[in-house]
Amino acid sequence: MLKVKPLENSDYELIKEAERVIKQNYLYGRHHIGSAISTKTGKIYSAVHLEANVGRITVCGEAMAIGKSISEGERDFDTIVAVAHPHPHENIENCWVVAPCGMCRELISDYGEEIDVIIPYNDEIVKCNVMELIPDKYSKVTE
């Protein structure tokens, strides 16, 4: 059972930013996931995922948002979220929050084990610490 936290106003703003970036940049077959990350300084960075013809080289939205924020000099993160944009053939009007994939869970935790992640859980949108999503995390051997 996950230890979840209720969403705050800033979390809803983060979701809205992820929705904004994917609505602005949605392109069928190229970009359908938007992500936003907030930093400890209160800044928000958003990005879309990069779809590739070879699925293994697709870059997730969470990785893009982390990379964008680091490129701007921010390295201390608070909360991250990803949303999916409906495809034209789907009978869905709005974007929805999606949980990070396993690789993104590893990546997010590599950049901060204290980062919170907004996810769908038990028919609700909640927030939890990334380490709740990745027990027994892989780690490098350090000397």
Helical stretch count? 3
How many individual β-strands? 6
Helix-strand category: alpha+beta
Q: Distance between termini?
A: 34 Å
* CATH 4th-level superfamily: Cytidine Deaminase, domain 2
* Assigned CATH architecture: 3-Layer(aba) Sandwich
Shape: globular
Q: Kindly state the mean pLDDT as a whole number?
A: 94
Compute the number of structural domains: 1
Strand content: 15-25%
Describe it for me?
By secondary structure, this protein is an alpha+beta fold. Helix content is 26%, strand content 24%. It has three helices and six strands. It has helices at residues 9-25, 61-71, 102-110, and strands spanning 33-39, 44-48, 77-84, 96-98, 116-121, 124-129. A hairpin with a 4-residue loop joins strand 1 and strand 2 (44-48). It is globular and about 45 Å long. The model has no long low-confidence stretch (mean pLDDT 94).
Quick summary of this structure?
By secondary structure, the chain is α+β, with helices and mostly antiparallel strands. It is built from 3 helices and 6 strands.
List the helices and strands and how they pair.
Blueprint: H1 9-25, E1 33-39, E2 44-48, H2 61-71, E3 77-84, E4 96-98, H3 102-110, E5 116-121, E6 124-129
Parallel strand pairs: 3-5
Antiparallel strand pairs: 1-2, 1-3, 3-4, 5-6
Summary keywords:
143 residues, alpha+beta, Cytidine Deaminase, domain 2, 3 helices, 26% helix
